[in-house]
Amino acid sequence: MSLGDKIGNKAEELGGKAKEAAGNATGDEQLRAEGQADQAKAGLKGAVENVKDAAKDLFKK
């Protein structure tokens, strides 16, 4: 995973946490759900990148 991808995924995760917190603070369930979805999406992207990296390492050998 490139550094840019890692930074982008972390930014998306943190943005999702902020949305979730804002939704909790204001009672906005839609905003809270969007924040959780953003976090899940960032986590999935990270997992896919990790699989790609593992596959690259496997085929280098």
TrEMBL record:
<feature type="domain" description="CsbD-like">
    <location>
        <begin position="5"/>
        <end position="57"/>
    </location>
</feature>
<feature type="region of interest" description="Disordered">
    <location>
        <begin position="1"/>
        <end position="45"/>
    </location>
</feature>
<protein>
    <submittedName>
        <fullName>CsbD family protein</fullName>
    </submittedName>
</protein>
<comment type="similarity">
    <text>Belongs to the UPF0337 (CsbD) family.</text>
</comment>
<dbReference type="Pfam" id="PF05532">
    <property type="entry name" value="CsbD"/>
</dbReference>
<feature type="compositionally biased region" description="Basic and acidic residues">
    <location>
        <begin position="7"/>
        <end position="20"/>
    </location>
</feature>
<dbReference type="InterPro" id="IPR008462">
    <property type="entry name" value="CsbD"/>
</dbReference>
<dbReference type="InterPro" id="IPR036629">
    <property type="entry name" value="YjbJ_sf"/>
</dbReference>
